[in-house]
Amino acid sequence: MSDRPPVLMFDSGIGGLTVLREARVLMPDRPFVYVADDAAFPYGAWEEPALKTHILGLFADLLDRFKPEISVIACNTASTLVIEALRETFPGHPFVGTVPAIKPAAERTRSGLVSVLATPGTVKRQYTRDLIHQWASKCHVRLVGSNRLAGLAEIYMRDGFVDEAAVRAEIAPCFIEQDGRRTDIVVLACTHYPFIANRMRKTAPWPVDWLDPAEAIARRAHSLIADGKTAPCEDPLSNGPDRAVFTSGRTDFATRRLMQGFGLAIA
Ligand code: DGL
């Protein structure tokens, strides 16, 4: 185990685990603390000012408690709202954000029809609109806000059950046919969605490229801490197994089993 401070991985729920698993491949010797703000899940339904205040308050505690080397906001709904405010509020602490992979989608599409599948929060963010304006002005980008998919992924990861009819209905608006062209890329702009990507493939009306940015996020985090110039660890618990924190303070059996499967001890 490393004697360096942990990498803090943050999401509203279990979606950030899709980023954690990639991060571990690149940084096998690093300790990780996974924080699920389950008390506030789902973020997609929150009003912006309240969510911003909530996350900034939470981070004041998390940085103090875990003294991480870097924090990865493995949540599009949070990053698109608060990443700049986090950097301003906690200068000197590196934050890696997760924002919709609109640039790579625009570079890769052949039909020019791209859909961004996200929470209702991410879809309405100015940040998301700006990304489209900046990188995808030559494409037709459809924003699809889903109320249910993050919750469906939470259920799937705990209970192994997916309501396929619901998945089909939620992803259906992503698929457009226009002048003989079809949507060929769907951006998975919520970190929960890769967990149910197989069900999306199965229920999609035609094959598309499902863009999951998890590996790119992990690479970014790795690049920021790869130089080894960090302070020694001040947290005596960091030499144990990786830890998971649930802000509700309550974890049921299925959640504990899931965390165990990911090699995370509930802190
Ligand atoms: N995993 C989060 C994201 O990437 C969202 C889930 C939620 O609605 O809280 O956007």
| Helix run count | 11
Bound small molecules, which ones? D-glutamic acid
Q: Which descriptor suits the 3D outline? A: globular
How many E strands? 12
> From the 3D coordinates, which CATH architecture of the largest domain would you assign?
3-Layer(aba) Sandwich
Largest sheet: 6 strands, parallel
SSE layout and pairings?
Layout: E1 7-11, H1 17-26, E2 32-36, H2 48-66, E3 70-73, H3 76-89, E4 95-96, H4 102-108, E5 113-118, H5 120-124, H6 126-135, E6 140-145, H7 149-159, H8 164-171, E7 177-178, E8 181-182, E9 185-188, H9 197-203, E10 209-211, H10 214-225, E11 242-246, H11 253-261, E12 264-266
Parallel strand pairs: 1-2, 1-3, 2-11, 3-4, 5-6, 5-9, 9-10, 11-12
Antiparallel strand pairs: 7-8
Helix pairs in contact: 1-10, 2-3
The structure holds D-glutamic acid.
D-glutamic acid (DGL) binds next to helix 3.
Keyword list:
18% strand, six-stranded parallel sheet, alpha/beta, globular, 267 residues, isomerase, 2 domains, four-stranded parallel sheet, Rossmann fold, binds D-glutamic acid, 12 strands
Overview of this protein structure:
The two termini are 18 Å apart. The mean pLDDT is 94. Helix 2 packs across helix 3. It is built from eleven helices and twelve strands. Strands 4-3-1-2-11-12 form a six-stranded parallel β-sheet. It has a four-stranded parallel β-sheet with strand order 6-5-9-10. Strands 7-8 form a two-stranded antiparallel sheet. It is of the alpha/beta class and 267 residues long. The radius of gyration is 18 Å and the shape is globular. It folds into two domains: 144 residues, Rossmann fold (3-Layer(aba) Sandwich), CATH 3.40.50.1860; 111 residues, Rossmann fold. Strand 11, helix 11 and strand 12 form a beta-alpha-beta unit. The relative contact order is 0.19. Bound molecules: D-glutamic acid.
